[in-house]
Protease-4 (Leptospirillum ferriphilum), 331 residues
Amino acid sequence: MKKRMGWMPASVLAVLMTISLTSCISVNLFPTEKGLQETVLSGMGARDKLLLVPINGFIGDQTSRGLPFLGGRDDTVTRIRATLRKAAEDPRVRGIVLLIDSAGGSVTASDRVYHLVREFKQKSGIPVMAMIGDMGASGAYYVSVAADEVWTHPTSVVGSIGVVIFNVGVTGLMKKIGVEDRTLSSGAEKEMGSPLKPMTDKDRSLFQGLISDLYTQFFDIVSRNRQIAPDILKPLADGRIFTARQALKNHLVDRIGYRDDLIRHLKRLMHVKEFEVIRYREPFLAATGIFGSESPADSPMASAGRLAGMLTKSGPTMLYLWDPGFSGSIK
């Protein structure tokens, strides 16, 4: 028994050393467009290509917190930028379908992906369609409205137009364990949102101002792209989610169908007899199969890492995200 216990300190030390090392190492899992490999899914040999672009899981950027390989490098923005640049360089790519299955993500990352899609459309003239899978909520819906048309599966969940600031407080816990906060700052609101300080009414009011501004941006993006009058959109934009039929009825999406229906629609629209349907993959991940068919940003490990990152951040996290688990957040 004593011999076994002797291994415990060494095991704990090894784990701590591994965590320490990973915090110092940055691995580029998302190469530039030159490093992406094309995979043909169907229609091999057809002249015109249709590119499928998955946008799954949490929509983040290089500033996301957490351990590498556990969501700390969930760089959706870089991945989408590289994908669209490679597509723009291939004259055979005639259309793009965004395969969206996400509850959203950070405010900035969602907005950056939206603008990447808009910019690609404007420069290339190539049609971009969005196909929502299980979910296209909040930041994912924000991204989808950049497309020329938004399609959903019959069972999709859509919407959640709104902002949430995820924030926790640990003052009660600190008092119980005898820890004292001795932070010094230059102004009364410099530590606004710190988990080490109680949230005051003024803090809450200032945060509500931030939320209102970011909400207005989200609201305007949807109103303009979906051509929905503000007075009609307003009662729909309170954070709620919709079924596919409800979303179609309220003009939040264009059509309900399946991927094959969308591809046939694009063929008719573009007078194309057959598409070579393709995807781009990262060669390292494709070769190793570490994350299966998912990118590291979309894996279950990544979700756990992002949650850990959010919980350990020193300040609030502003999100275009639908997640009922954030019940203690500011909305």
